[in-house]
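Human:
Class, as today's exercise, you are to examine the entry below, and be ready to discuss the fold:
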Amino acid sequence: MESAKRKSPSAGWDWTLVLIAALLWPAVALGGGASEVFQKVKDAIVVVKALDREGQEVSQGSGVVLPSGEVVTNYHVVEQGVRFQVVAKGQAVSAVVVAKRADRDLALLLAPGLDARPAQLGRAGGLKVGQRVFAVGAPYGLELSISEGIVSQLRGKKPPIIQTTAAISPGSSGGGLFNEQGQLVGITSFYLKGGQGLNFAVPVEWVQELIAQSKKANPPPAAKSPGRAQAPDSSSEPRKGESDTTWSREAEALHAAQNWSGLLEHSKRWTRAEPGESLAWYALGIAYYKLGRKQEALSACKEAVRLKPDFAEAWYNLGVAYSELGRYQEALSAWKEAVRLKPDLAEPWSNLGFAYCKLGRYQEAVYACKEALRLKPDLAEAWGVLGVAYWALGNRSEALKAVQELRRYDPARADRLFNLMMGK
């Protein structure tokens, strides 16, 4: 599920991390070589791990981050799993399967908090035999390996299954097949042992069809009854041995629909069914907070981090809960832990700056905000807090520069902050 994001120093909760907007690379007349293609696509390639209920790995493959926010991999990579992880840049986050098709060997996962950049989509239907292509994946668990080859044949009707000489090894399954412009044209799926260059990828068009089918088949609860949020049936309890993936998916849908009452009831049932599941308490904390029940939100977040001490997003939300109750020193400690666990995420750094300001530690606030802006230069909250910290330190020129930068991303907030500084 999405983590909570702080909208401003006084309010906010939804911290949306799993998902970065697509970067559209311009098409060029001449294609790039392996090095150029690799630089374009490397941040979209992830490792996908399927685990059993005890957390033991049962299979591993590759995945590609899509502009829609999901991660695509092969069905056979996730088929035997109960829990799932997606690994990018050495950081593993929990994931849930949201759609799958065994006959096309495809599966879609949501991995909130994933630090990755989506691939640009191309078309398998536009490929020609003899055209250069590049397979990028994680063979044998080795992240970011590239192999070059050609399209040796296009099999079946359009969009075709792609036969290629680009090498596919164990662990490459679910990785990307890219054209010379760095556009995703296929998902590497299987190879024939003993064959010479008999490697195959399913067309990217199938991925787009799966995304469309999943959204049509599973609309969020609010879409089923416009204007009236519906809580799930409170009599529904999980069957013995049921995977918590179902619970996670419903929580994600309720969160996306901003159905906070529904999320509260769902999360309560989830915590009763699986009291040791940190995600359940995490979702419960968000629901309580959104309904204004801040003390109960605090208790739920505490339980989430007790059960999973390395859950950075839960530490972040714990800090928000403490902050809303005016307990800034405890908020500071929680956000420090979030930063320690995931130092490359900007939002916890920004909130650290806010806590430091509240505690009168303005120089440390400047450092924290600069770190947030180094990671995410368009983070409006960090520019605002930076301006406050500089103003408190008496550095008027830097404070006004921060306000000017804030105006690029949030003009209304910049005007309010400027008026406060000017005593208007």
User: Anything to note?
Assistant: The two ends are 42 Å apart (CA to CA).
